[in-house]
Amino acid sequence: MSQQSSGSWSELLSGRNGLRSLALAGGVALHAVNVYIVATVLPSVVADIGGLEYYAWNMTLFVVASIVGSAVTPKAISDVGLRRSFLGAIVLFSAATAVCATAPFMGWMIFGRSLQGFGGGMLLGLSYSSTRILFPERLWPRAMALLSSMWGVATFIGPAVGGIFAEAGAWRWAFWSVILVSAGLAALVVTQIDRRDAGRSQERVGVPIHQLLWMVAAVLLVSVASLADHLAWSLSGVLAGVLITVHIARIDRRSATPLMPAGGYRLGGHLGSLYACLALLSLVMTAEIFIPYFLQIIQGFSPLLAGYFMVLMSAGWSTGSIISSSRARPTTNWLMQVGPVLTTFSLLGLALVLPLYRPAELQLVSAGIGVLLFGVGLGIGVIWPHLLTQLFHDSPKGQENIASAAIITVQLYALAFGAAIGGMVTNAAGFTEPGGLDGTRHAALALMWVLALGPAMAAWLVRPVIRRRRSE
User: Fold this and answer.
1) Domains of the chain by residue range
2) Which residues, 6 or more positions from 225, have their beta carbon under 8 angstroms from its beta carbon?
3) Of 349, 346, 330, 315, whose CA–CA distance to 455 is shortest?
4) Which of 252, 328, 380, 395 is 20 to 30 Å from 410 at the Cα level?
């Protein structure tokens, strides 16, 4: 990647670029706001309609469906263009949200969450893919930082909405409120994305159905295994999921409709290392599923306060993305080395502090939890925009849409796999049996230790990426 002049924030956020940026950022924000609303109200949902043993499934199946949704975006863009694809995703997402709002039992909720996931996955895939289509190359780093920062914006909206409705005993209205956000995004898309159907292609673009079916099977297998009474069965399910993932890579490399671009599976190559780092860092976000529950049960936080503590992770992510996006190449190379290390040690710190039960120094412990959560996200944020920008530049010619959509597919697959493994780890540590305070404390300790392995491995894998950047 040549050392070229980068665009400014004013160029990205002014005039027509500014309105388009708002539309694309809105796609990420809608998905992110929904994630934080659900994370905040889910303890109240379980208390009302039951289904604690399927707690992690709300995220697992949501993300599994998101993988499928993101994977079909290249075909959607090619066949009907950005505008129609966006509007179709918004309509589906809104309808699914209404299903969640009316759920009388957990099975109904999980079905609605799955539909939500498909629509949300399309929104994410379209937002990231549109960056390359709608903006010049010099604006890509800023645009990537903007999209990442939407998770930070959502941290202030989602927990507030979810916490207020949860404390009022009206968690269903939290879902209805999301539909209002959907309507606003639809208005932006209609007015800011041209009818000319930017992104349409004369070439035939397929959907990697076989690979997607295997991916869904892998995640569901690990999810079912996480409910097993014996740890050996749970570990067998994880091993089977890993083997299926290897099988997916083998068939995808020979497929006429690949899920990943050429070179995406070679860990020794720069493209494979980039995708591997994205996957390992995405595993960390599994913590957001459980942290509100941990804080409410162990620390006695209210739903609103627990929600806001949880979002410190994404606030750190957004802060890191914005700060690092404007730095010179030598500085960003250094940040890419330091970021995963910071995340690793922050998670290890949470393993020590999070399980503490209402100590005398509760305020000091709470402050420590907040700092560590922020550190987890900050470490990811400083590296994230540069991983994505490098992927854009290194995409094989003719596979740019596939490479862009694969960013979200890899991220979501890792999150779905992580949610399933998180369910297995927490259940094995006592989350549901014996449950209660002691079970939750043990689950928090075990989960943080396991999640720390992801960024620790990413710190090693990012080294060839940095070497390549230094040589350019």
Assistant:
1) 16-195+207-471
2) 233, 234, 235, 236, 237, 238, 240, 241, 420, 424
3) 346
4) 328
Residues in contact with 355: Cβ distance below 8 Å, sequence separation at least 6, in sequence order = 298, 441, 442, 444, 445
DSSP string, 276-306: HHHHHHHHGGGHHHHHHHHHHHHS---HHHH
User: Cα separation of 65 and 119, whole Å?
Assistant: 8
Q: In this structure, are residues 141 and 325 in contact, taking their beta carbons and an 8 Å threshold?
A: yes
**CB-based contact 307:301 (threshold 8 Å):** no
CA 231, 233, 237, 242 dihedral sign is positive
State whether the Cα torsion 389-391-394-396 is positive or negative.
negative
Give the integer Cα–Cα distance in Å for 274 and 251: 21
CA 194 to chain centre: 28
User: Count of CB atoms within 10 A of residue 232's CB?
Assistant: 9
- Mean per-residue pLDDT over the chain, rounded: 82
CA-based max dimension of the chain: 67
Show the tokens assigned to 368: 């420590």
Residue 423: CA count within 13 A, CB half-sphere: 29
Side chain identity, residue 158: G
Q: Which two tokens stand for residue 141?
A: 């780093």
Let me know: does 433 contact 283? Beta carbons within 8 Å.
no
DSSP letter at 317 equals H
C-alpha angle with apex 154: 152 to 159, nearest 5 degrees?
115
Residue with tokens 């860990």: 267
**What span, in angstroms and rounded, lies between the C-alpha atoms of 286 and 282?**
8
Output the DSSP codes for 98-126. HHHHT-SSHHHHHHHHHHHHHHHHHHHHH
Q: For residue range 220-247, list pLDDT tens digits in order.
A: 787 777 666 677 777 888 888 889 989 9
CA distance 40 to 111: 19
C-alpha span between 234 and 98 (Å, rounded): 34
Written as six digits, the tokens of 43 are: 């303890």
pLDDT in tens, 85-125: 899 999 999 999 999 999 998 889 999 999 999 999 899 88
- Look at domain 16-195+207-471 and name its CATH class: mainly alpha
Q: What is the pLDDT of residue 200?
A: 54
pLDDT in tens, 152-196: 677 678 777 888 888 888 889 889 988 888 888 888 888 877 765
- Residue range 295-321: average pLDDT? 80
Query: Which range is least confidently modeled, 41-50, 182-191, 317-326?
Result: 317-326
Joined together, the tokens standing for residue 195 give 């009818």
